[in-house]
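Long-time lurker. I teach an intro course on protein structure, and each term I like to show students one example going from raw sequence to a predicted 3D structure in token notation. This year I'd like something fresh instead of my usual example. Would anyone be willing to generate the tokens for the chain below so I can use it in lecture? Attribution to the forum is fine with me.
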Amino acid sequence: MTRAEVVAETKCFHCGENCGEVHWRDDKPFCCKGCETVYEILDSSNLCEYYTLNQTPGTRVTIHDTAYAYLDEGDLGSRLLTFDSSSFSSVTFFIPSIHCVSCIWLLENLSQLHEGIIRAEVNFAKKTVQIDFNKKAITLGTLAGLLASVGYAPRITLEQEKQEKPRINRSLVLKLAVAGFCFGNVMLFSFPEYLGIDQADHTLIHLFSWLNLALAISVLFYCGIDYLRAAVRSFQQKQINIDVPIAAGLLALFFRSSYDIISGTGAGYLDSFTGLVFFLLIGRWFQSKTYESLAFDRDFKSYFPLAVHRLEDNEWKPVVIYHLVKGDTIRIRNLELVPTDSILLEGTAYID
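-- Reply from a regular --
Happy to contribute to a lecture. Here you go:
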């Protein structure tokens, strides 16, 4: 085996990719200076446990010292903060490279990398990290640059400025609460039936049955009305969907139980009826929480960076992209998005 073949098969200790040119540090191979720098940062802070949680957990790093300097210019950075005071601030970054338990461990130990970071909490499902920090000790731009230097560059776009909170479906939550209340009370009123003492006091048994019926009526015509409406619309469109058998089951349980109670032949099955509606609504609530994590309504601004570097007085300075004017000269780094119609002035480029 030749030396060239040995080099080609060498895996980077940080990201696991093949090393074209091997950079050695502490007898460990790295594919580039960026990965080696990340290892140095973690090693100096005694955070190399990061590499024991997963094999080659990192991602290839490209470090730009001034990539996030624009966050410290003007009031742009303050718009991204979820909380801000004289000594304490909080920001939530979207980090698409979060992919394993090592990522979570490292990000939640950021306070060991810089004394200005107070706390960090990762939301793995949304690939976000909420960071509380002391802005007197570390600026927002420096914080974003620190994340990028360890391989977790935050994606900051124009859309993020809005900081819109997810909408809460209050109607669904209220219906779920009513269904849960009725289900619990129907179960309570049905205890004599469960324990086989329904012959002890017929008056009390009838009273509990009528109370169950009253609670079930509110469950059917308020909590379960959406299933009935969906079934009606399905018949109007001459199609069958999942709501049709659900509505049929609800109506069968309700009317059979109502007949038993009114005729005095039994206590009915209203505990099963209210329980079915309650658990159906729980399923719908979980479904809505799942949909919140999926965003299909992004426009073109969702993909644009907040700022680029513009040439001013022979010096590259960060500027927000909606401050660009015709005739400006901007610098686009490798893999960065071109935010406006432009003419390539120097060098060669491959553009998707």
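Some talking points for your students: The first strand starts at residue 23 and ends at 25. The longest helix spans residues 270-292.
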